[in-house]
Design a protein that fits this description.
Layout: E1 3-8, E2 20-23, E3 31-34, E4 44-45, E5 81-84, E6 96-99, E7 110-116, H1 127-130, H2 137-143, E8 154-158, H3 168-181, E9 184-194, H4 196-208, E10 215-219, H5 224-230, E11 239-244, H6 253-263, E12 271-277, H7 285-289, H8 297-302
Parallel strand pairs: 2-4, 7-8, 7-9, 9-10, 10-11, 11-12
Antiparallel strand pairs: 1-12, 2-3, 5-6, 6-8
Helix pairs in contact: 3-4, 4-5
Amino acid sequence: MTQSVRVSLHAPSAGLLFGMLSLAGCGAANHAIKGMSAAGTTNALTAGSGGGSGAAPTGGASGSAPDPSGGAPSGPSSSRHVARPVGSVMGTTSGFWEYLPPHYGNGARYPLLVFWHGIGENGDGSLAALQKVPANGPPRLVKEDRWPEDRTFIVLSPQHPGEDCPSSREIDAFIQFALAHYDVDLKRVYLTGLSCGAIGSWNYLGDHGDEVVAAAVLVCGDGRSAFAKAGCALGRVPIWALHGELDPTVSPLGSTEPLAKLNACSPPPVDAKLTVYPGVTHDSWTRTFDLSAGNDVYGWLLSHVTP
């Protein structure tokens, strides 16, 4: 059973892709498909099994009517999950995992979900190091074919180098890269992370608020510094913070304190939501991202759009 507190002012209602695309899951054989972008041009994109070199899809659908049956094929989610090692994609210095929903490349724009991992998955972005990233969260579900086709996010999971948490600047740079290179619905840009990734994401929101991000799900992070910096302005971006009651690694106060302060603001936050899992320690992310705790974080994200 979870304890939830919610303050909601309102909840809004609701490429250039590739010529030849080599899609690979973890250890899966390569597949190639031919797809036209909305502008009628094609680009080459290749990736080896489990990831490889080549350029990521270039964003910028022209606004032509989408072809519902075009783009990336249906099938197991892992078949559209590709590792992009550091240096293999122009426009970013990050290595990352890329998941594209079925029919991506058909001229439509899709919601973007950027996931930041915990400190245990830090690495240099090489193909070998990237294998750590799908240990948890959305990339794990995609890898294990537990990501349903109708959850139509573009999911990008960058790897943070070093021995600390991702910085606000790093997160902003990656989001800007994603917006420039993928066919993203600019009203549906979402941020999520766990532990160190959630701490970095809180700090990003403290600096950038709702400039780009429509909503964020932050699991066992610490938003006290973000609130100290932004104050009640932080409430302009919808935030759902989730934490284990007995977390010995990141204090639950990192979620409960900023949410309490946001809820006390006037005017109130757009949507400030807190879930504390009774008796749970640091791993509050598994039950959150696989929805086994009954919290539909993906539906909640999609309920929010930027103005």
